[in-house]
Amino acid sequence: MKPALIEAGKKGGAAHKHKWTDEERDIVRRDYNGHNQSAHQIADRLTHMTGDKITFYAVKGQAAKLGILQDKNPRWTDKEVEILFEMITRYAPITIARKLHRSLNAVVVKSKRLGCSRRARDGWYTKREVWRILGVDHHKVQKWIDSGELEASWHTEIKPKKNGGACWHIAEQALRDFIIKHSFELTGRNVDLFQIVEILAH
Question: Which of 19, 47, 66, 188 might form a disulfide with 135, Cβ 3.0–4.6 angstroms?
Fold first, then answer.
């Protein structure tokens, strides 16, 4: 690790600031195509090449200075649309956004425009879906279910167990009521705000 970086980790140490070279700017000018994925790839390449930590945002900043910063929401490729369709019913939008190197808003808007449902069923949620939406671990959701704060039933005649075989059935109305009552607790960075807004709007 460079001495400057070591000093930056100490109290009062000055943060290391990378000094861009003409060669590095040429790489950005040549390889940046307006897609976030290309900015991530350039950042990784320059990090390995220089030994400094070059971030995605630093690359975007250089692209802006070079006058080649394109639309922050570039055209979707056929491959990206295919991935979106495959993942939309199984993963939270934030997970898909990270996979595609796009913003959360871009993923939600695109899925709506394509008419691809975010869920394979309507009217109820599993416990797994709820903890992903609320941005908490499954133990906390189970605690809410056990205490009666979050109304839930067995989707089959079999009570859900740790090894699977059955799932909790949480009605959309029950989840909506819970969100309204416990909104002050939903402050984590993993909260799926877009999904919550959809639930409350119904």
Answer: 188
